[in-house]
Specification:
It is globular and about 100 Å long. The strands form seven sheets. The chain has a 29-stranded antiparallel sheet that branches. Strands 1, 2, 5, 8 and 9 form a five-stranded mixed sheet that branches. By secondary structure, it is mainly β. It is built from nine helices and 51 strands. Belongs to the TonB-dependent receptor family. Keywords: Cell outer membrane, Membrane, Receptor, Signal, TonB box. Pfam families: CarbopepD_reg_2 (PF13715), Plug (PF07715), TonB_dep_Rec_b-barrel (PF00593).
């Protein structure tokens, strides 16, 4: 019997534990259900506990402060209501048969110091909420509350979650856009909104939603689950991150904030504003919440990229430098968010609610690219006008109903759409040619580049066979003739026009229902089902329409090539220096480039006809488009057994059936006989791929309360990850705009990745709002998917081909520790200090087959995108209305790209990254607070390297940004 089957049998056994109690329950004393809500002077208290005195009966409030306590014996009882940092309250009640709605229960803070910090708006209240939710949860989770998010310098959802234990983020030009748990590959973490996976328009094909479109102001809570329960979606090996959007408050609320800032790279201003309104009407039955946010900022980045000659057959020359790319982004980003929530409470046990969401992220940027093409002795200049739009739109309706004193039902229906498009329109009347325009200019060197090694190749100094080479951040042309071969707009001629087409649309329609039945005072049973219909379409791998001048194609009597100097140009945005972080050595190559209007005109029919441009789009271009439908039907059964007052055991099994159909097309070139002559013919063939499978996922959790302040948790869970849409279709996309040329292929034979996960965690809660937690985890993973990269050199052109494959099983183990501690035991001023520290260490191992002659060698490496070390460190000060936080975030190095052909010596790695941010706020009054935020104090670059840290592949700097503002809680 397999381990999964044994765990399934164990889960079924756990469910049967309650049956004898069920029989006895029917003969027991009459029992009833209590419902109510728990608050303090400032709002609801999520996860506060309610216990019936002198019994083991208890319940925890939900995120809205509401609780339902079943199986309470009829008659006089006393309730004990507890919340970390608050006085335990005893509430006498007279329990009557049926459902008993109680008046709102009000708690007060423990001691004047705690009450003061809550009123003054420091982090204490947020930490109390998060700790209570974590302590009372059955699953292994961490929580971040909205008032904590508002006190950190984080403007989108990904940046907010990066502070949590074991969570790491990916940064895109200085802003976090994706998150992962325990340093695992980003695709292995699921992103949920209100408990349901969000559709993803990630252009890389990942199912992990991109989060830079979601402003942090619309988020109420973030919940990070590291060991799933059967009622959660099971496709998450690293963990799941659930963003809970705002719902109706218990009290009338209106707050506004406004801030202005500055980006030190672009030397431009930024602004940010938000408004939140909520209230209740009709005797508190109808609740309304509206929130809106805008964040408009200028930004810039310098990116330094080295391409190596990895396609060479000579191992020495595989590390020769083919090209250096100097890239400057100088753009504008706009994030808009609008969230609405409605709730209607029929009574204490029945409510319906609705949420609507509209988020939009505009990324507008001209991009300036300067290449030194050492392999062909050329300069190359690219200018592109980028306008990317990401939108998230959708709504959900749901309800919770106490049907009887033992039966509760909740349901949800949702429809969300995510879309990513390039919104440029070059000067053309053909709507099929909509996309991102790129113009390429080249200048041939008469005497060539200097500083070459004895084999005629360009090297980094430590790689060069004779020691003649450059330092990684000091690669210069070293021209043999500095006068004749200076970069020159009169010699830079237009060689290529490209319209890059990229866009993805994904829509999820979801329905779900859950029923919970209290079998006995100690045992409850929960069952549920979920259906999701997903539609996905678009180009998630780039397709390009390509136009070349006939002169460059060698066609006789062609119009001459157009020099850059004859076109309308504007000044290069120098902004203090081209790569000023390394001393601005490339200011002489900051060439004035064409204007945006001129770029659009290059694509007009009149310009292209007059200058002899011809359409040479690759015949494989149609294969970059695909569309698919995925239907998922999931069901689960789960039991919760309160074995003793300290021991809780719950478990069950989940089954997710996936039915996937993806349609695309494949390309091949065939030799056919046409009019009696052999002719090469391009053939595009429609392709439809099916991928249907069950995922049986048994799960067992044990929670033991060592004492009122300490919990010990253990869990076994089986989870999985679905293959990506784009990875399954046997398409082929060719990107001729990159250097080297890249080819991306799909693989219809991919299998899902499964993992058996083991977790052991402990937590201890200090009296003064503090927490110490730690634990171990282990994962056994099968059918890991990775992107295999092969390199070829033909006709002097390097081509990199990527294709997803399943590799052998992988193992992963690690530990994590976290500490939140306030130094209130120190005298005077020092008592306001405190720390938040968390660290995650993860070791993984996977074998990658590499062909060596007629043999196959097994290379051992860590999982792609998996970091061994993650940590966050926050030093904070809170006293007399002042809150100050210095936060450091570290993500250790990880393998970014694996090559079966080249082996570990030339794997691409993302290097260590440590960013430092600062925030401060001062509460002037109960209504008004001023704040200051500064990001990336140390101007930490994002780096990648090839095999050896000295062999730089990519380095990107984006400098500091900051803002100052005011928040006014009007009521």
């Amino acid at each position: 019997m397999s381990f999964a089957k044994r765990m399934l049998v164990l889960c079924c056994w756990l469910l049967t534990l309650g049956l004898p109690q069920w029989v006895a329950f029917g003969q027991a004393v009459e029992r009833a259900t209590l419902t109510g809500r728990i608050e303090d002077a400032n709002g609801v208290l999520p996860s506060a506990t309610v216990l019936v005195k002198n019994t083991t009966l208890g319940a925890a409030a939900d995120l809205n402060g509401a609780f339902q306590l079943p199986n309470v014996p009829v008659g006089p009882q006393t309730l004990l209501v507890r919340f970390i940092g608050y006085k335990t309250l005893e509430v006498p009640v007279e329990v009557k048969p049926g459902v008993n709605p109680l008046p709102t229960i009000k708690l007060s803070a423990e001691g004047t110091q705690l009450a003061d910090v809550i009123v003054k708006g420091t982090m204490a209240a947020s930490q109390i909420k998060a700790m209570n939710i974590k302590r009372n949860s059955l699953a292994i989770i961490d929580v971040l509350a909205s008032d904590a998010i508002g006190k950190l310098p984080d403007r989108n959802a990904a940046e907010a979650v990066q502070r949590m234990p074991g969570v790491a983020v990916a940064r895109y030009h200085g802003e976090a856009d994706q998150a992962t748990v325990r340093g695992l590959p980003f695709a292995w973490t699921s992103t949920l909104f209100n408990g349901t996976r969000m559709p993803s328009a990630n252009v890389g094909g990942s199912r992990n939603a991109v989060l830079d479109a979601v402003p942090s102001e619309i988020i109420e809570y973030v919940q990070v689950a590291k060991a799933l329960t059967p009622d959660m979606e099971g496709d998450a090996i690293g963990g799941s991150i659930n963003f809970v959007t705002r719902t109706a408050p218990e009290f009338r609320k209106l707050s506004v904030s406004a801030a202005g800032g500055y980006n030190n790279f672009s030397k431009d201003g930024t602004y940010n504003g938000s408004i939140v309104y909520g209230g209740r009407f009709f005797d508190g039955k109808l609740g309304v919440m509206l929130s809106a946010a805008v964040w408009d900022r200028r930004w810039g980045t310098d990116q330094y990229t080295i391409a190596y000659n990895t396609g060479a057959t000579n191992p020495q020359q595989q590390v020769a430098i083919n090209s250096l790319l100097l890239k400057r982004y100088m753009g504008k980003r706009q994030t808009y968010g609008l969230n609405a929530g409605l709730e209607y409470r029929f009574n204490a046990g029945n409510r319906i609610y609705g949420r609507a969401l509209h988020d939009k992220f505009n990324d507008i940027r001209p991009v300036y690219e300067t290449y030194f093409l050492f392999s062909s002795n050329e300069y190359q200049l690219n200018f592109r006008d980028s306008f990317y739009e990401t939108t998230i739109d959708g709504y959900e309706i749901g309800g919770e109903h106490q049907l009887s004193k033992r039966l509760k039902i909740d349901w949800l229906a949702s429809d969300y759409l995510t879309e990513y498009v390039i919104d440029n329109t070059p000067s053309t009347t053909d709507p099929n040619k909509r996309g991102l325009p790129i113009a390429t200019f080249r200048q041939r060197l008469s005497k060539g580049f200097g500083g070459l090694s004895s084999d005629g190749k360009k090297y980094l100094k430590f790689d060069a066979p004779d020691g003649i080479g450059d330092d990684p951040l000091a690669i210069m042309p070293r021209l043999n003739d500095p006068v004749a071969d200076a970069i020159d707009p009169t010699k830079l001629t237009l060689r290529q026009l490209v319209i890059l087409q990229l866009g993805v649309k994904e829509q999820d329609q979801v329905g779900q229902v859950n029923l919970k039945f209290d079998v006995s005072p100690k045992f409850s049973l929960k069952v549920g089902g979920k259906y999701r219909h997903k539609d996905r379409s678009g180009r998630s791998t780039s397709g390009a329409l390509v136009y070349l001048p006939s002169a460059a194609l060698g066609i006789p009597n062609s119009p001459p090539l157009v020099p850059l100097s004859q076109l309308q140009r504007e000044s290069f945005p120098l902004r203090g220096g081209f790569f000023q972080e390394i001393g601005s050595p490339y200011n002489g190559y900051a060439v004035d480039n064409i204007t945006q209007d001129q770029l659009a005109q290059l694509f007009s029919p009149s310009f292209q006809t007059a200058n002899g441009f011809r359409d040479v789009t690759p015949a494989s271009f149609p294969t970059t488009y695909s569309e698919g439908v995925e239907n998922v039907m999931a069901g689960y059964v789960m039991g919760e057994w309160n074995a003793t007052s300290k021991l809780k055991v719950f478990g069950g099994v989940r089954d997710e059936y996936t039915s996937l159909r993806v349609s695309g097309s494949s390309y091949r070139r065939e030799n056919r006989t046409v009019e009696g002559r052999p002719t090469a013919v391009d053939v595009i063939t429609p392709v439809t791929v099916s991928n249907d499978y069950h995922a049986i996922l048994p799960m067992v959790h044990v929670k033991y309360a060592l004492n009122p302040k300490a919990n010990l948790r253990a869990a076994y869970t089986r989870t999985f990850i679905r293959p990506l849409f784009t990875d399954l279709v046997p398409t082929e996309s060719v990107n001729l705009t990159s250097n080297p040329v890249t080819i991306t292929r799909g693989n219809p034979d991919l299998r899902p990745t499964f993992a058996s996960n083991y977790d052991l965690m402990g937590e201890y809660y200090f009296d003064n709002i503090g927490l110490l937690s730690g634990g171990l985890f282990y994962k056994n993973i099968t059918d890991v998917v990775f992107q295999d990269r092969s390199v070829a050199l033909e006709g002097g052109i390097t081509t990199i081909t990527s294709q997803p494959r399943n590799m052998r099983s992988a193992k992963l183990m690690g530990l994590e520790v976290a500490l939140t501690r306030r130094f209130t035991f120190l005298p005077g001023f020092l008592g306001g200090f405190g720390v938040e520290l968390n660290y995650t260490h993860t070791d993984s191992e996977v074998e990658v087959p590499r062909p060596v002659g007629s043999d196959v060698m097994m290379d051992k490496t860590s999982l792609p995108q998996q970091s061994k070390h993650l940590f966050n460190t926050i030093l904070f000060y809170e006293r007399n209305g002042l809150t100050a936080r210095l936060a450091g975030n570290f993500r250790g190095r990880s393998v970014e790209a694996i090559s079966q052909q080249l082996g570990p010596r030339l794997y691409t790695w993302t290097d260590d990254n440590f960013t430092v941010d600062f925030s401060a706020a001062y509460t002037i009054s109960k209504q008004i607070r001023v704040f200051l935020e500064i990001n990336n104090l140390t101007n930490e670059p994002i780096r990648q390297y090839l095999g050896d840290r000295r062999r730089l592949v990519d380095s990107e700097w984006y400098s500091q940004r900051g803002q100052a503002g005011i928040r006014w809680d009007i009521f």
